[in-house]
Amino acid sequence: MSLSVRPQRRVLVTKINRSQSFAGVNSSADRPFRNLSPFTPTVSRKTGSRVSRMFSMSHKSPPPKVPQPNRLDEVYEALKKGLTAYLEVHQLELEKLSTQIRESKRNSRLGFLYDLDKQVKSIERFLRRLEFHASKIDELYEAYCIQRRLRDGAHNMVKAYSTGSPGSREARESLAEASKGYKEYTENMCLLENELESQLGEFHVRMKGLAGFARLCAGDQYEIFMKYGRQRWKLRGRIEVNSKQVWDSEEMVFLPLVTEFLSIKVTELKSLANHVVVGNVSCETKDLFAALPQVVAVDINDLGTLKLSLEVTWNPFDKDDQPSAASTVNKASTVNKRFSTYNQSPPDTPSLREQAFYVSVHQAGLLRRHGQW
After folding, report:
1. What is the DSSP letter of 34?
2. Any idea which fold 200-319 has?
3. Ranges for the FAM65 N-terminal domain (predicted)?
4. What share of the chain is helix, strand, coil (3-state, %, to 5)?
5. CA 152 and chain centroid, separation
6. In angstroms, what CA-CA distances link 202 with 62, 88, 265, 338?
């Protein structure tokens, strides 16, 4: 899978073609700058924890000063596709488990059937929770669209009163009222945008390594710095003699953002005072809302001779709102393991009626043996 590159200013309208080698990355020389608020220092990671997690505030970040309706539309469409795919994957597993239960009821151990039934109920609960989450996002987006239409109407009124003759007292009062409404609707849009951002879940990013063809040599050391809004992840790695890569950090949890892009900077550590920046790229993240884990390859330099391989898993719920155990279906290894287990033929054991019959026959034989029949 590949992510979309940030659009350049010289391109007016263009469709980005995605490929297996990451659709593209901007170098630090021609990457456009965006007017964003300055970043604040990051929260230090806990020592001894394999998975690093960083928060800017309780819900990602404070409300923005200026709403971004066009960008929110894009993120909402990508989020809806991801949630639909998530529901389809779990619904497919639910159907397979239900079919397996129907086929196994006649000749299966009670423990086997109980385990399947327990997992079916767990997935059903998770599906209801996921549907409620999707409906909540729809309600937030509808409220956002209403505030956007009101804001556009207030903007047109302000523009009309400003171009007219503001000499009369009624005209000035109408202009002040329209300006007040425009400010109020803008604040409401910012709050709804921030609330919708808090419902985006988590991106679990796993470092898989660098791929450099003939570029990587034994003994090379690299530093990778990822910046996503106010979230940071810095890790260092070394290339071993057997081409094995050793990194001081393996996983990171990023909270998805609406208006920010993922910035990746790769530096080759030559010596104490000689560090060479290999590439500094910025990537789109709205394509990461997917039901199953995705492996992305990022072109670090312009020629594509050095790539960064990452495995990204999207969880629609964050840590404070963890789903049930059924959410592990979004991991491909778990899906394959479950399906291989459930596709096995059940053991050929007698049913409850057969067991009762065998017990009665056995008891009758004992009574005959002791002369009590």
Report:
1. -
2. Immunoglobulin-like (2.60.40)
3. 16-362
4. 45, 20, 40
5. 32
6. 18, 19, 22, 24
Q: How far is the CA of 328 from the CAs of 86, 126, 296, 365, in angstroms?
A: 11, 11, 21, 51
* Host H or E run for residue 362: helix 352-369
Yes or no: say if 85 and 290 are a contact pair by the CB < 8 Å rule: yes
What residue type is 192 in one-letter code?
L
Rounded-to-integer distance, Cα 144 and Cα 373, Å: 82
d(CA 176, CA 72): 29
Two tokens at 341? 């287990």
Question: 83: which 2 tokens?
Answer: 């949630």
Q: Is the distance from CB of 284 to CB of 5 less than 8 angstroms?
A: yes
- Residue 270: CA count within 13 A, CB half-sphere: 6
For the segment 224-229, the average pLDDT, to the nearest whole number, is 94
Q: Are the beta carbons of 56 and 230 closer than 8 angstroms? A: yes
Residue 50 three-state SS: coil
pTM across the whole model: 0.68
Tokens of 203: 């991106």
Task: Give the strand pairing for 51-53 and 251-254.
Answer: parallel
What Cα–Cα distance (Å) separates residue 103 from each residue in 6, 87, 117, 352?
A: 51, 24, 13, 16
DSSP output for 303-357: TS-SEEEEEEEEESS-GGG---GGGGGGSHHHHHHHHHHHTSPPP----HHHHHH
